[in-house]
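Recall the central idea of this unit: under ordinary conditions, the amino acid sequence of a chain determines the structure it adopts. In this exercise we apply that idea directly, starting from the sequence alone.
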Amino acid sequence: MGAFDFLLQGLAVAAEPMMLMYALIGVTLGTAVGVLPGIGPALTVALLLPVTYRLDPAGSLIMFAGIYYGGMYGGSTTSILLNTPGESASIITALEGNKMARKGRGGPALATAAIGSFVAGLIATLLLAFLAPSVVKLALIFGPREYFALMVLAFITVSSAFGDSTLRGLTSLFVGLALACIGIDQLTGQARMSFGVPELLDGIEVTTLAVAMFAVGEALAIAGAGARPDDEVLAVKGSVWMTRADWARSWKPWLRGTFIGFPIGAMPAGGAEIGTFLSYATEKKLAKHPEEFGHGAIEGVAGPEAANNASAAGTLVPLLTLGLPTTATAAIMLAGFQQFGLQPGPLLFATNPGLVWGLIASLLIANFMLLVLNLPLIGLWVKLLTIPRPWLYAGILLFATLGTIGANPSTFELGMLLGFGVLGYVMRLFGYPIAPIVVGLILGPMAEQQLRRALAISQGDWTSLVSSPVAAGLLLIAALALIVPLILRARGKGQVLSQLAGDED
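Accordingly, the structure predicted from this sequence is:
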């Protein structure tokens, strides 16, 4: 069967009444939490991860996808009305959208963001459905060497892409890899780094670590920052609907943003923020009214928002086909799969096609639901923005605690939640990225397993790791992904220093 037939089967699964209910709950929860200030999709998904713990895998993952997409949608409301981007990918939306809101055009800004996200999500999900089988066929020829090289590439790109320092990214990664070593050795059955604590024999729960690092760590960081004035929430004045001129100026940026964001999101070293900045630069060059940019140009909201959502769908290509998370949110989604004993990758398409294609098809349904939810309920989402910040983060701590108790009722697990939360706060304090530590914990055991298999097959010959052209190519790309950012940053610092020297002269 072709991709279209599989997609139709997936739609039959996703259109079941119970699955539709899960999708609706997911998009509503995701939007509600994503709208709240300072909470991006990664924190939203991490916070709501324990909610899906007791559900069946198909319904849980469909609800999870709804939470993911809802969190992406909700972030635009915060950026436009509060000038508070929930994540780096929403910076451009805040730049132009908040200017539109201050001019009394918050309604059209929210509308073009919602419709642009819908168009981009629809096209990108179809691209995902038709590209995934080809990537799976390629991945099926991978052996232990190729998979280990792929894991190394994921480690390097995630460490280099997050934060301002590659060294700090790698440090976070190795902390995650060290945590991944705790528990029973997969091959020998011996206990490692458990220190005689029975609860550590099963290893560190990814769910606990993700909720602690993203939710508890963020709440502690906000509390540690001290008192700050409340952000001004701009009221939505006039009509929410776009004028004919707004439509004429938005539809091309929607399409351009989609085809810029999707391939960048699918790349191992992608990231939604790259697509949004490229989309913004493209729209600025092609705009008939470039003087409006920086003062509330609707193209500056339409294009980047489409790129942002298309990139979100693009990250699902390596996640579902290869099991590689390329963003923090994708890493949390991978944890969602693993809590049901599922490992995304080519074998999942073969062993459980109904679940995978049902998940992909549910993204189409979630897009329609979000469009219906976002435009009529803008007034409700705006009221959520008025929640006082102390109440908001107290609620986050409460949900994080209750979620952890629901997933694993243990005082030791609560202690680990607090301990990792403090670690997340300290890492934020010193500028260490959070995503690499989660990726290290998730992919570390798989990388170790593939490395030991490759060495067992070659009888301990380390040179066999690069004897495969595919493995050698992936390791070369990983080396370039590590070295090139260092060179670019060194050049950037050199140019700044030379400019300062010139200014002093």
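Residues 33 and 44 are 6 Å apart (CA to CA).
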